[in-house]
Design goal:
The complex is a heterodimer of chains A (297) and B (332). Chain A has 297 residues and is mainly alpha-helical. Helix content of chain A is 74%, strand content 3%. With 332 residues, chain B is mainly alpha-helical. Helix content of chain B is 75%, strand content 1%. Classes of the chains: A mainly alpha (297), B mainly alpha (332). At the A-B interface, helix 4, helix 9 and helix 11 of A face helix 5, helix 11 and helix 13 of B.
Chain lengths: 297, 332
Amino acid sequence: MTAVDFLNLLIAAVLLAGIYAVMSVGMTVIYGVMKIVNLAHAGFMMLGAYFAYEFFERFHIDPLIGAALALPAFFLFGMAVHWLLIRWLPKSDQPTLSSLLLMFAFWLVLQNIGYLFWGNMDRSIFTPRTLTVLTLGPISISLLRLIVFFAAVLCVCALQLALSRSWYGRAMRALIQNPYAAQITGVDDERIARITFGLGTAFAGFAGALLAMLYSFSPDFGRPFLIRAFVIIVLGGLESVSGVAFGALVLALVETFSILYVPAGYQPAISFGLLVVVLLVFPKGIGGLLERKWRPA
Amino acid sequence: MKRLIASFQPLFAAGILLVVLLLPILGLTPNVIRILFITFVWITASLAWNLLGGVAGQVSFGFAVFYGLGAYAAALMINAGVNPALSFVGSAAVAALASFLIGIPTFRLRGPYFAIATIGVSEAVRVVMNNISAVGGAGGLRVTERGIFHQTEHYYSGLAIAVLAVCVSLLIERSKFGLALRAIRQDEDAAADIGINPFRCKLWIHAIAAALTGVAGGVFADYAAYIHPQGVFAFSTSVTILLMPVIGGIGTIWGAVLGAAVVTIVEEQLVAVFPQVHLLLYGLLLMLIVLLEPDGLVGLLRRMLRRMHVDPSSRGPDEALWGRGRLEGREL
């Protein structure tokens, strides 16, 4: 591998990491606040992809604007889902079987509503931007991936800022750290949970719309990305935005560079294999590993 | 009253068994026999999942791995000329072996981590099976059995494995091992404190469940005569296996049986009428069950029995009849 190849792959990996981060971060905040493993995330991503697609096909609205529109639309949708379904779940500070099955069932429902509306045909969004490539000497970068990367990074940074600076963000972090103490100090956990679920869903829809610009999609669109999101949030330790960014980078690097060594047919197995390895070697994420090393025994 | 119904339970079971034994003689149409056969296969898989997920509390999204490996093992052995009955034993052995390979690393994980890891394992296995050309790759594998096809023979082998699964479940439920598994479900640390080895118990119940699922896959492969990775290793196979006991009533033997019967019949009828929406209906059904009736169909029946029951002081006959198991409040 020459240095140029290496650089090209490195850039591709970093650009991929941005998208991976934005698609995982929604799951992370939901897990952090509600301890719900949101399997329906894949369904929300699929809907986000079709959201951008419909706007593009019917009204010729640029998919980037479609993705931006997905944020408020899915925020409201997520709050509605929380109000309709999730708040009826028995409360627990541990993940429960009920919540896992409920979100799984909701994913099934979303996916099959997708099949009803759009059939099982693969769709894609094709704009003049899709095949444009920027070349800087020997290095070439897909323009679309670059744009998507910046949109994704912008959103993740905005979220991080909101979490660290706003009252809402403080309340959310308090709930993640200690739900009881947070409630004693006057945090309305039901309301925060509803907003958090809306936020997580908004990010899922946004990520789906961004991914729809890069890949073809069908109603089963979210599943491979769901597993990737799991790998990422497990790597990052399930509860922090910076952890997610780190996990996304690791997964993107592994996936990108493994193309050199692993036959393409086995490519989908890489993230799944990595998931198992990660779960076994660092069950608490890289952060957990550091914590274990640094904490005096 | 409670004791009365409890003592009727074996009679009730024997009655059902007698009816299904005699059914083929009544001259049912081949399609009805096919549906019954598939019901038996699913009952076996559903009871197997229930042993791990319901009794021991370890939720796995990866039972398609064992189902598929069992199917492939039986298919390859039958193609090589092995007696089908013997090849089903081979299926069980292969699936149990795989369960150790999967279980030894993944049972170090707890709760949602284990559930997520099983999704990863099953997806990885499916991708790999899609690419192994020695067993047909994505194109699948044809099963060629020498001899004449008798549907009733398949029917009875299906029935036999379903009865086997019920017997295994009953034995485990009434043994000390079953008690240990229930303790692990309720609180793994407390179970470890009273001298149970949770890791070893989980491995063994995983192996037993995998062997049963593998046999179910083998019997199915022998009947279907053609298997392919997108069918037997599909995520939807794992989903169906998980849904049956949950819909029926998690943690109970009758629930797993009832769930399998309902799911098969509903699916067979729905697929014929609305090919697209059966998973949608499953999803809605599952949501309703999680939110409204966490004990599944068995819980619903239990409630109806309680309403009919006269003596309000007793906890009702239902508990003796259906056994216990709740979805609500189960931590992963």
